[in-house]
Amino acid sequence: MTHSTSVHPTTVAAEHPYVLEGAFNTFDPDCVDRLFEADAQFVPRPGHPTAGPDRLPAHRSFLALRVPIRVTPRHTYVSGDLALLIVDWVVEGRAAHGDQVRITGTATDVARRGPDGYWRYVIDNPFGTAGAQSPAATPDEPPEQAGPPHQTLHRSPPPTV
User: Fold this and answer.
1) Distance (Å, rounded) from C-alpha 36 to C-alpha 62?
2) By percentage, how much of the chain surpasses pLDDT 70?
């Protein structure tokens, strides 16, 4: 599933998770990264934040599965130009490597309304309060190898003939 890469930021904080969903489902890391402030943090795995130019490889690694995301915003709290977004999400389907995957989380995110009126992430923490990974996991591992404990990677049975 691939969608248009012309995803635009929103002027409504509660719509921001849906804009991310649209950008994520293009599988284009540049499209996703346009929804972040320049120095924003993205936490692809608990305990491993990335920022600035390091964010793009982290997006690329996560998007490499080529499985769409579905978001369900739980809470949006806005104070002035800041918003706290609590969002349940699931990435589920057959990955590019052929295996069935299911990765879920509850994001705890902070967005800011810029001078142009559009919301962008300041902190995108998709796994919310999940515990940090063990030291054996490295930041360069793709999410299917180094994801949080609640991630499930399903191996599909071979086709029957």
Assistant:
1) 16
2) 78
